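Write out this protein's structure.
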Amino acid sequence: RLIDSLDPYFEKFLSKVELIDDVRSPGQIYYRVKEWLLRPENGEMTDVHGKALSKREIDEANANFVPTFYRSKHPNRFVIVVLDNMQNVEPGEKDGTKWQALDKLCRGYFRNQLCNKFGCTNVIVAQQEKSKEKSQYTLDGDVVIGKFIPSKDSISEYKNVTDTCHVMFGLFYPYMYGVDRYPEKGPGYDITRLEDYYRNLYIMKSNFAEPNLNTNLLFDGVTGTISELPNPESPEMIKVYDYVEAAIMQKKGLKPLKLT
C-alpha cells in the first residue's frame, strides 16, 4: 500500500527524467543525448539565419565546415545530463586508452558540444582516488583529516576534468573516516552525534564565483533532505542533534522518531 501511494511521485519523476544505462563509450553517450535533443518535440538545428535544417542539410553543412545552431522547442527548459559515474565510461574501438576516452567525452562532447552548442548543463560524478581513502594517523593517534578532504588533484581516472568544468563541488564525509569533530578549527560539529547525517560541501572550482568555499550540511538519506546546518554553537543546533539522535535510534529499532 505504501509503495502504491508513491506511484504519482515516480510518474512525475519519469516524465522529467530519462534513465539510460545501456551505453558506455563516449560516442554512444553523446549520440544518445544528441538524438534526444533533436527529436521533433525537443529541438532542431538551424543555419545562421534561423532556418530549420533537414538531416541532409545538416550533413552537408558539417562536411563543408558551415556552422549550425541548436534551437530548443522549449526555451525555458533546462536539460541536465548526469553521468554517474566517470569510472563506468568504457573506451570505444577508436577511443584509445581510458584516459583518451574520458578526454574525448569531457572536453570534446560534454564541453564543446553538449554545453557550448546545445546549451546543456552537464553533471559528471567522479570518485576520489583509493589512496586518498586510507587513514593516516599522527603520533598521538589522531586521524589526519586533511588527507581526505576533496581536492582537484584527488580525482581518480581523469584529473583533466578540472580544466573542462565550470564549477566543481566536493563532498566530505568525516564519519566515514572516524573523525570525531569537524571542522577542526573553531567549535566544529560533533560527528559522534551526527554520524552519517553530516556532510561538508566544498566549492573546489568556480568560473562564476569565489572558489575554495565550503558549507556544512545536514544530510538525511531516508527522506532525501539536504539542508544547511546552523552555527554549531547556536540553540538551533541543539534541536538538530536531538533530531539526528532520535532518527539514529529509530533506525536501530530502539524507539520511534516523534520529534517535531
